[in-house]
Amino acid sequence: MSGTETSRLLEKDRRYVWHAMGGYAPDGPSPMVAVRGEGVWIFDSDENRYLDGMSGLWCVNAGYGREELARAAYEQLRELPYYPLTKSHPPAIELGERLSEWLDGDYVFFYSNSGSEANETAFKIARQYHDQNGEPDRWKIISRYRAYHGQTSGALAATGQAQRKYRYEPLSPGFLHVPPPDSYRRPEGMSLEEYGRECAGYIEQVIQWELPETVAAVIMEPIITGGGILIPPDGYMPLVREVCDRYGVLLIVDEVICGFGRTGSRFGHQHYGVEPDIVTMAKGITSAYFPLSATAVSRRIYESFSAGEEYARLRHVNTFGGHPGGCAVALKNLQIMEEEGLVARSAEVGGGLLEKLSRLKAHPRVGDVRGRGLLIGIELVEDKTSKKPADAGSIASIIARCKQRGLLIGNNSDTVAGFNNVLTLAPPLTLSEREADFIAEVLTESIELEEGEGEDV
Ligand code: PLP
Fold first, then answer.
1. Domain at 100, CATH number
2. Chain centroid to CA 359: how far?
3. What region, left, alpha or beta, does residue 228 occupy, with left being phi > 0 and alpha being psi -120 to 50 degrees?
4. Fewer CB in a 10 Å sphere around the end CB: N or C, the chain?
5. Are 48 and 408 in contact (CB under 8 A)?
6. Residue 347 belongs to a domain with what CATH number?
7. What is the atom index within ligand 1 of the atom nearest the CA of 282?
8. Are 71 and 55 contained in the same domain?
């Protein structure tokens, strides 16, 4: 594309597009206009090439430019472009079976279009389940501070990031928050095992204080992603499962980012050996080639929604949820991931990349480098003793320096005041060793460069 064409697009962009997380800024910087993708690489309208270290928004798991995925959508749209799931169609049926295999459990699937909707569906199911099980007062939902669960009213209420909620409140009532496991900032001298117990204890305490008979569910990501890549101690999730069981509370696991190989297992919770009651998934389910999400519900819960009784059915419908095109793309995506061993690749290449990046821990401003599979966070601090989070300006400079060198990375922006100091990486799972080396080199150079150098961006 020519420079003139880019200018023309940007002029219209300024006039017609309200960007995510953005506002009116007539003199602000222009956004990058992405025009093409190939593997882990994205090309902008000026033919600049960038390694997409964030897979868009943590979602292009199988990488860009997959002819087979485009073809799967095309062929399905020619055959049957749409039909609602008040009835059924083959791709939704086949996909349910495949997802159940991937989950290694006995689940039934309600399809929607986005992670937010998958979580909203989970909340309705949890509340109705208790209501018709003779416990109508169980409607409260517990989640963790710093976690993101979506932008709709209930999903945002579940979100523990005040900066995403400010000026939109009050949201849906009945959502409570507890501190997340933040292993890097755990009390000095406390072992990871003790800390995992302490953090699971926060959930138990809130259940007790709120009265267990009023609590419907706990929702959590296996690893907090957008909130700063917070990896829990290994014992934490099994303990949360035990707490939920002890008080009759359902465990909803949000796999919107952690699912589909991101952390080096098919789903993140599989690292921890727990069996959720409900699992929500989106993003990587189609590697983002089509909007699709699913709420996986254990058969035991599903079977209590007796279709024979007037109000015991799930009275919940989503026009485009389970779109045949999306389900066909998801099926092909799962096939690709299996044939190319992308889950194992995530563990392997991610492990290697983490090791290379861990050398950065010697840098005075790098507090922590942590990750699982191809989900990696680098926490920057003012100094290692106080662990005071690095300021937004220095985070932005590093991100800009990476971009200048052809690498797109992210950070946990607009989450909790003062704690937006974690650089994030979640590249496509097709990342090669050489591409991983490129990420490590560029990131290391961009962090090590003294502030002020290379700031012409
Ligand atoms: N849950 C998690 C963990 C997410 O990261 C996101 C989005 O980033 C969502 C839910 C919401 O998904 P969506 O943006 O598709 O509504």
1. 3.40.640.10
2. 26
3. left
4. C
5. no
6. 3.90.1150.10
7. 15
8. no
| Alpha carbon nearest to ligand 1 atom 13, residue | 115
* Substitution candidate for ligand 1 out of 164, 256, 424 with most atoms within 8 A of CB: 256
Contacts by 99-104 with C-beta closer than 8 Å and gap 24+? Answer: 99/281, 99/294, 99/296, 99/334, 100/296, 102/266, 102/267, 102/334, 103/266, 103/267, 103/279, 103/296, 104/266, 104/270
Q: What does the alpha-carbon distance between residue 206 and residue 310 come to, in Å, rounded to a whole number? A: 34
Interval between CA 7 and ligand 1 midpoint (Å): 32
Pick the residue whose CA is nearest to atom 10 on ligand 1: 149
With CA atoms as reference, report the closest residue to 377 among 184, 162, 238, 198: 184
Residue at a domain's end among 323, 339, 355: 339
Q: Looking at this protein, which amino acid is placed at residue 291?
A: P
Q: What pLDDT does 306 receive?
A: 87
The predicted-structure confidence for 276-290, as pLDDT tens digits, reads as follows: 999 999 999 999 999
The verdict on residue 3 lying in a domain is no
Q: Give the list of residues 6+ apart from residue 446 with CB closer than 8 angstroms, or none.
A: 398, 401, 402, 405, 407, 454
Q: List pLDDT tens digits, range 283-338.
A: 999 999 999 999 999 999 999 998 788 899 999 999 999 999 999 999 999 999 99
CA of 269 to the centre of ligand 1 (A): 17
Residues with CB under 6 A from ligand 1: 57, 114-116, 119, 148-150, 221, 225-226, 254, 256-257, 282
Does 139 share its domain with 158?
yes
Do residues 389 and 326 both lie within one domain? no
Nearest CA to ligand 1 atom 8: 150
The number of distinct structural domains making up the chain is: 2
Rounded to the nearest angstrom, the distance between the alpha carbon of 448 and the centre of ligand 1 is 32
Where residue 445 falls among pLDDT bands split at 50, 70, 90?
very high
Q: Say if residue 172 is in the same domain as residue 144.
A: yes
Atom of ligand 1 nearest to the CA of 147: 3
Indicate which residue's Cα is closest to atom 2 of ligand 1.
149
Q: Are residues 74 and 195 in the same domain?
A: yes
Give the separation between CA 426 and CA 114, rounded to whole angstroms: 19
For tokens 């990342």, what's the residue?
A: 431
Same domain membership, residue 262 and residue 154: yes
CA of 194 to the centre of ligand 1 (A): 30
Answer yes or no: is 329 within a domain: yes
Range of the domain at 89: 67-339
